[in-house]
Amino acid sequence: MYEKVLVPLDGSALAECVLPHVENIVRSGGVRDVVFIRVTEPSYMPTRYAEIGLTEADVKRIEAESEAAARRYLDELVGRVKYGKVNVKAEVLTGKAADSLADYAVKNKVDLIIIATHGRSGISRWVWGSVADRILHSSRVPILMVRPPGCEPKVYIPERK
How many Å apart are CA 132 and CA 112, to the nearest integer? Predict the structure, then answer.
């Protein structure tokens, strides 16, 4: 059913909680490709570099270091996972995370996206945002959202009297 699976990661242990789910889906058969992706965001304040003491060269160096760190992380992860004959690859994208991932999924004919979610709600989601939520609302590809242990939503339920 799912031949190409996209797994967005941000380098955190929380994001990696999806790995057992990926493995189970791979073992169920039919998966040919698993693509691990990390998105780095470019600087969006080029007119403010001088104000904070950075040159354009500094910003380009920082962005290059961020991309290199993302590549190292994904290469190490790909070396750790074993999915038999399934083709496993890593991609580093640059841009807004949710948009980049949704675009990649469509352009590369991804069948399933598996992503972790913090399970934030209310003001916390509004303040911090949610890449998983934005992907859910912008993607045309099925999505499996995994809430890691310990990330239960904080829902107020009034006591009955």
Answer: 13
pLDDT tens string for the chain (161 positions)? 899 999 999 888 888 999 999 999 999 989 999 999 999 988 766 666 666 777 778 878 888 999 999 999 999 999 999 999 999 999 999 998 888 999 999 999 999 999 988 654 444 343 334 777 777 777 778 889 888 765 554 555 567 66
CB 22 within 8 A of CB 34: yes
Q: Which amino acid is at 105?
A: A
Name the region of 13 (left: φ>0; alpha: ψ -120 to 50; beta: rest): alpha
Q: What residue segments make up the domains of the chain, in order of their start? A: 4-146
Can you tell me the distance from the alpha carbon of 36 to that of 22, in angstroms, rounded to the nearest whole number?
A: 11
- Helix 131-138, helix 97-107: angle, nearest 10: 40
Look at the pTM and tell me if it is higher than 0.85: no
Fold category of 4-146 in CATH? Rossmann fold (3.40.50)
Residue pair 74/105 in contact (Cβ under 8 Å)? The answer is no
* 119 Rama class: left (phi>0) / alpha (psi -120 to 50) / beta: left
Give residue 76's region: left, alpha or beta (phi > 0; psi -120 to 50): alpha
